[in-house]
């Protein structure tokens, strides 16, 4: 239910890093911040596929489809996707 993604491109040198997440395929990008211990989500999308990249910290993601449940902990640098009709929080 939760697809692990790899960035399209990564480069690192003495100046720092550049990570290109995607070149195409998405029409919307959002940045979300959350305070520790809060609950977000509890919904699904009929058409949208959402991709997430963790910039700082960590988060627990729960995905559900029917009786199937998947739970993962993601941390800084993790990149993942959740497709349509998958309940997620």
Mean pLDDT across all amino acids: 92
Structural Rg: 14 Å
Spans with pLDDT under 50 lasting ≥5 residues?
Answer: none
Biggest sheet strand order reads 1-7-4
State the total count of DSSP E strands: 8
Question: Which band does the percent of strand residues land in?
Answer: 35-45%
Report, as a whole number of angstroms, the end-to-end distance.
Answer: 13 Å
Structural class: mainly beta
The DSSP helix count reads 0
Write the element-wise H/E pattern from the N-terminal end onward: EEEEEEEE
What does the main sheet amount to? 3 strands, antiparallel
- In percent, how helical is the residue content? under 10%
**What's the shape?**
globular
List the quaternary state of the chains.
single chain
Characterize the structure shown.
The chain has 89 residues and is mostly beta strands. 0% of the residues lie in helices and 44% in strands. The model has no long low-confidence stretch (mean pLDDT 92).
Topology of this structure?
Elements: E1 2-4, E2 9-13, E3 16-20, E4 50-53, E5 58-65, E6 68-75, E7 79-82, E8 87-88
Q: What keywords describe this structure?
A:
three-stranded antiparallel β-sheet, 8 strands, single chain, about 45% strand, about 90 residues
């Amino acid at each position: 239910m939760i697809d692990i993604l790899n960035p399209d491109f990564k480069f690192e040198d003495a100046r720092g890093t550049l990570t290109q997440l995607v070149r195409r395929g998405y029409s919307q990008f959002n940045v979300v911040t959350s305070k520790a211990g809060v609950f977000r989500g509890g919904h699904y999308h009929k058409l949208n596929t959402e991709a997430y990249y963790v910039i700082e910290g960590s988060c627990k993601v729960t995905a559900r489809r029917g009786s199937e449940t998947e739970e993962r902990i993601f941390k800084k640098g993790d990149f993942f996707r959740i497709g349509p009709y998958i309940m997620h929080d």
